[in-house]
Amino acid sequence: GGTTKEFGILQRRMDRPDGDSIVNSCESGREGELIYRLVYQQAGCKKPFVRLWLSSMEENAIREGFANLKPSTEYDALYNAALCRERADWMVGINASRLFSCLYNQPLAVGRVMTPVLAMTVLREAAIAAFVPEKFYTVDPELTSCCTASSRRLPEKPLATNLPATRRK
User: Fold this and answer.
1) Is the dihedral of CA 76, 28, 45, 86 positive or negative?
2) Residue 97 CB neighbours (<10 A)
3) What distance in Å separates the CA atoms of residue 97 and residue 71, rounded to the nearest whole number?
């Protein structure tokens, strides 16, 4: 499909004889570093590469980035951290998915990000479903002919009626 075609284009460009090195210009961050290195390895590329690290896509920042290309070795720890996270995510996800699928007799996907986000969504939905409106009172004194202030929500009417005000809600 499209991914195979795009990879082939990258592989041919990395393999061109008219270039002796490569600039890694993937997204600046752990995931960008991981994606570049995996493509580089899968392509079987042996050329040295340097890192373009951008914090902005403005022209001045891009020019400055190309003027200050960094050795790839400065980002080895970032790559290793991303690789460890990817492998841990896979190991936890595949094993937890199998466990919960067996426990509940249906295919279930469990993951580091998906599971907590789903849990937060379910808890929030339950809180909304359990919401019971409560009556409250406020006092809105008129400060001048055009301005009013509003008190905090008061749970009991006597609290609101004992506060001085010219208008009550």
Assistant:
1) positive
2) 16
3) 39
β-pair partners for 139: 168
Residues in a beta bridge with 24: 51
Q: How confident is the model at residue 166 (pLDDT cuts 50, 70, 90)?
A: very low
Q: What gap in Å lies between CA 115 and CA 108, rounded to an integer?
A: 11
Q: Confirm if 90 and 113 have CB atoms less than 8 A apart.
A: no
Please identify which residue in the block is written with the tokens 């460009």. Answer: 13
Is the sign of the CA dihedral 56, 62, 68, 69 positive or negative?
positive
Tokens 């849990």 locate to: 119
For residue 79, what are its two tokens?
A: 């790559």
* Residue 166 burial (C-beta neighbours within 10 Å; 0-12, 13-18, 19+): exposed
Q: List the beta strands (DSSP E) in the chain.
A: 22-24, 49-51, 70-71
Total-model pTM: 0.60
